[in-house]
Specification:
9 helices, mainly alpha, 275 residues
Length: 275
Amino acid sequence: MLLVPLFGVTMLEFACIERPPATAPWVQLSLEVVFAATLVVVAHAINRGLSQHALARQTLITILCGAIAAGFAWLEARDFGPLDALPAFCILAAAAIAIAALANRSASRRKDLCIAIGLALWIAVPLAALTQVERLWGVTGLVSLIVLSKIGDVAGYYVGNAIGRTHPFPKLSPGKTVAGCVASLLAGVAAGAVLAHFKLLPSGSWGIVDGLVAGAFINIASQSGDLFESWVKRRVRVKDSSTWLGPSGGILDVVDSLLFSVPVTLVIWPLIFYA
């Protein structure tokens, strides 16, 4: 349910003409984490409190999804400085709400709520943070991130099917092979070098070496994201997240690599590329 408004937020923000300059990525990320976690707590309370009133529950959850979309758009559109009082206030207030919500629940309900918060942060924050990548490094940087996140999937799939014999994660992801994982990493590193050579990645001090490092970090994050999504699906005993995209599964099956690579990009790229 959360994916639809979040994709809408991303498209809405890309369509904005006047946008403020970006500030420290951790400021936006911390606010988005707090915002998403707090709204999950509220949604969880609505779902529990109105368990016998399906229509009212669905209406309130729909309104909450709209609030999520509007809230993420507002947070991404603001230009928060690292010394602003608002981020600190939001973090403290949301932390108080989350602690109070967890403290007033039984052990089983606390576990359910923690899982709900974790899954929401895993999906919601990275997708919304795509706009932060675009604001910091432009559309070219965003496209480069997506290419580096996905090119390893293609290389790993074909090489793994062709010569893969050893399966390092037989229970978690039976289709993955050592050959496929290595090919995926090599493809990501090579793609990073190519993008840096043609100036498609942001400028750095070491040229192609910066591209190699960026490609390696993003590929490792992407493969980790894919494995994590496989672990989540195994936990709920499903093969694909949905059937929306036919043989490719669901939207989550397509964007799983971005869910780890986007946060890694926002942390690593400022260290190796110029602002």
